[in-house]
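Sample entry (434 residues):
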Amino acid sequence: MEAVEAVKCVSIPYQPSEDVLRLLEAFRDMVNYCIRVGLEKGITSRFRLTREVYHRLMEYGYHSWYVLSAIEVATVILKNYRKAKRRNGRVKAPRARRLMAKIGNQAVKVVDGMLRIPLKPRRYLHIQLYRRARSLLEEYGVCSVTLTSKAVYVAFSKTVKVEEPEGWIAVDVNEDNVTAVSSDGEVKVFDLSKLKKASYGCFERKRSLQRRYHKDRRVLKKALSKLSENYRNKVSTMLHQASKRIVKWCKDKNYGLIYEDLKGLRKTVNAKAKRFNRFNGKVQLISRRSKKLKRRLNNWWFRKLLNQIEYKALWEGVKTIESRYTRGSSSTCPICGSKLAEYPNGLVECERHGIMNRHIVACVNLLRWEPAVRARPLLECSCEASPNEAPFGADEDKAWSRRGEVASPECNARGVTGSPITRHPQTQQNLLKQ
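Predicted structure, serialized as tokens:
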């Protein structure tokens, strides 16, 4: 059991006044000034940057906590810039563009159901809190506040104890659904096909608006902004509902959560290679994937869902694992380890065990391949494969298979790693065909 700090945030919409807008612009100027000084003098630490710019920033006349927050934000931007420059030397100098201001919890209070935020010495901004935000902030307190031109984001935290789970639930994120399989054989599918249809519909409506208002950029910008906001709200609502149900399932069963490490997916999709351009007769960088596929996957919401699952699980004390053992998880038979043939509608076929559900196969393999849960195999073996035909190896003297699972003599004799279990209420065929 370990104690960690979990952080959440609530959004409070408000109508900014002229004083607030001036504060946001001044905060952006302070951040840009800090970045410029940091680049000119090669400053890498926040302490040195504070000594250089603190007295100059106090001339803006705002609360000192805004000055320290601006230095903190600039330090983070400079740190990210140095990392990007080490990876790629051709990086533009950073610059803050968005209107925002950040302040710590030292000067923010909840007074009579209203959030009191200092602007200048002895001058405050009061924002009415709705019931849920008021109850959360009164219970957990305020960690920090971020002001934008549309809303106030208030962060709060609590200390949670993450216990060792009694079992595990593997999650496979797809474009039109989220499939989850528990280590006791229960399967749940969360249908999100409406988001895929909404993505296509939003793209077509954007094209229609661009054709209609291509001569009036002001109206076009306003219409596209409203359409994008509606689409983002729909995506956020459905993802919050799905992530909440998944975490509640884990909490009720006292199970941990395993999900795929999908980092670098968009980088792979957008990769380019030197090829011959038949239109201009030159050899140049051309995308490997089609425009339609890139549009689909670049608009995919997988990272947003995984972030929601991660912070909600941490808030409830549910242990999570971002598995790196995902290569070939949906194309490898979880029973015998052979290569699966692909079929339409999310189906795959094994020569020995028939047609299976591709997404459930991926979840089962996550449970079998992850070292943290490999001692809890899910499926029992019923195939007649000989040890020589076993793709994972059948040497009884070796305790580790190619995927790092625990091998037992009973299953090695049948060419399968991982000891079978008899408490499973379903056969492996019923599980994989759900």
